[in-house]
Specification:
Low-confidence stretches: none
CATH topology of the largest domain: Rossmann fold
CATH class of the largest domain: Alpha Beta
Largest sheet: 7 strands, parallel
Number of strands: 21
Strand order of the largest sheet: 11-15-10-5-8-9-16
Structural class: alpha/beta
CATH architecture of the largest domain: 3-Layer(aba) Sandwich
Shape: globular
Number of domains: 3
Number of helices: 10
C-alpha cells in the first residue's frame, strides 16, 4: 500500500498538514510532502480539497489465505509466581460467548511448568480444551520462547481468534507472534463482537487520544488477534464441565533463548490493587482541590473501599498515579463504583464502564457520566457526601 501526492494538483493549502495525526506531512516549496513516519492512515486523503492525494493498494501484494481452514477461539494465559493472571479468566468469559456464537471450541493455552495439579480446576471455567505447553524454563517469561511455542501451536491448530491480556507481558509477545504469522492484531480492545456472516472479529478500541472509538477487523488474514486490558470483561462462574487436556512437553533450556533471567526483582512500591477492588470511590476535577479530596477519602473509608480518580486528579497531584482509572490508568470492574465530581470523558469511561453498579455525583445535570451511571445524584459533593457518610455509618454497611 502506498500514498502519492500529485504536485500538479496540490495547491499547498496545508489541510493535509493540519489534519495528519502523526505529523507525517510538511510543506516544501509550496507543495505537500509525505515524511517517512507516515503510517498510511489516509486521513490526508479525506481532507484534501483538490483530491491531490491518493492511497493505492497493491492487491497482488496480499497473499491470499484460505481463512476457512481456521476454526476455534483461543485464550492465552500468562502467569507470575505460579499464579495465572486474572485477565486470562476474564477473557474466558468473552471467549465462551464468541465461541458459542461461531459454533466452535474454546481453548485455554498455558505455557508453564507447575500447573499439572490445577488443570482440572481451570477446566471448570467453561473452556472445551486446555493446551498445556510444559517446560521447566517456561516457569518464567522468555519472550522468544513464548513466540516460538505459540506460533508453532497456531500454525498446527489454526485457531481463528486469539485473545491475550493487554498486560506488559501480553503487549510484548502478541505483536511478535502477529508479525511472525502475518496476522492482524488490535491492541487494548474495550469491546469484542462477531459478524456472523463473515466470521470477522469486530475489535473496538479508543484511538486519537480516546476521542474516537474505532472498530477494526482483519477480513483477509487469520488468526484474528486482540489484546484486552484487565477489567474489561467478567470472569465466568465455575461450572462442572471438565475440559479435555492436551499436554505438550518441550525440552528447552537456557541456551535456547537469547536472554537469561538472572534475578526477578519486584520494583512495585504500592499495595494498591484497584483491579480486584469490590468497591471504588473515585474523584475528578469537580472535587475542587487536593484538600477537598479528603472528603472522597472519608467516603471510601466509610465503605471500606479503594480510592481512585480521573487523570486530571493525578496531573494536579491530588492523587497518586497508581490510583488513576481510565484509558491511561487501570481498568476496573468493581461491584460498586462511585464517581464524585467526574464529568465522564471517554478516556475515563472506558476504564470503569463495566462496573456492576455505577453511582454518579455531579452538580452538572448534563455531565456525560450520567449516561453510563445506574444511579445519579445531581448536587454539590460537599453537601451530598457528608449525608452519605452519615447514613453509611448509621447502618454499619462497611461491616457487612
Amino acid at each position: 500500500m502506498s500514498i502519492f501526492i500529485d504536485d500538479e494538483l496540490c495547491t499547498g493549502c496545508g489541510s493535509c498538514v493540519d489534519n495528519c495525526p502523526f505529523g507525517a506531512i510538511e510543506l516544501e516549496s509550496g507543495k505537500a510532502k509525505i515524511l517517512p513516519n507516515c503510517n498510511l492512515c489516509a486521513a490526508c486523503v479525506e481532507v484534501c480539497p483538490v483530491e491531490a492525494i491518493t492511497l493505492e493498494r497493491d492487491e497482488n501484494a496480499i497473499e491470499k489465505m484460505d481463512i476457512s481452514q481456521f476454526k476455534g477461539v483461543w485464550v492465552i494465559a500468562e502467569h507470575y509466581k505460579k499464579k495465572i493472571h486474572s485477565v486470562a479468566f476474564q477473557l474466558l468469559g468473552k471467549g465462551r460467548e464468541l465461541a458459542d456464537a461461531l459454533g466452535v471450541n474454546l481453548t485455554f493455552v498455558i505455557l508453564g511448568n507447575s500447573f499439572d495439579d490445577q488443570l482440572k480446576e481451570f477446566s471448570q471455567y467453561g473452556m472445551d480444551e486446555i493446551i498445556y505447553a510444559k517446560s521447566p524454563i517456561l516457569k518464567d517469561y522468555y519472550s522468544d520462547l513464548y513466540v516460538k511455542v505459540i506460533s508453532e501451536l497456531i500454525i498446527e491448530n489454526k485457531p481463528e481468534i486469539i485473545l491475550i491480556g493487554a498486560t506488559p507481558t501480553g503487549r510484548d509477545f502478541a505483536p511478535r507472534v502477529a508479525k511472525r504469522l502475518n496476522a492482524g492484531l488490535t491492541a487494548d480492545c474495550t469491546a469484542l463482537n462477531i459478524n456472523l456472516e463473515t466470521r470477522n472479529l469486530l475489535q473496538t478500541r479508543p484511538t486519537f487520544g480516546g476521542n474516537i472509538m474505532a472498530t477494526i477487523r482483519t477480513p483477509h488474514s487469520r488468526p484474528q488477534m486482540a489484546t484486552v486490558r484487565p477489567g474489561i470483561f467478567i470472569a465466568p462462574k465455575k461450572g462442572e464441565k471438565d475440559a479435555s487436556i492436551r499436554k505438550i512437553n518441550y525440552s528447552f533450556d537456557e541456551k535456547d533463548s537469547v536472554s537469561k533471567i538472572v534475578k526477578v526483582i519486584n520494583t512495585s512500591k504500592t499495595t494498591v490493587n484497584l483491579e480486584d477492588a469490590k468497591i471504588i470511590v473515585a474523584g475528578g476535577r469537580g472535587v475542587g482541590s487536593k484538600a477537598n479530596f479528603r472528603l472522597i477519602e472519608d467516603l471510601a473509608m466509610a465503605l471500606g473501599a479503594e480510592l481512585g480518580g480521573s487523570r486530571i486528579t493525578v496531573e494536579l497531584n491530588w492523587l497518586d498515579p497508581d490510583r488513576q482509572i481510565g484509558q491511561t490508568g487501570v481498568t476496573v470492574s468493581p461491584k460498586l463504583y462511585i464517581a464524585c465530581g467526574i464529568s465522564g470523558a471517554i478516556q475515563h469511561i472506558v476504564g470503569m464502564e463495566n462496573s456492576e453498579v455505577i453511582v454518579a455525583i455531579n452538580k452538572d445535570p448534563s455531565a456525560p457520566i450520567f449516561n453510563v451511571a445506574h444511579y445519579g445524584i445531581v448536587g454539590d459533593i460537599n453537601e451530598v457526601i457528608p449525608v452519605l457518610i452519615k447514613e453509611i455509618e448509621s447502618t454499619n454497611i462497611n461491616k457487612e
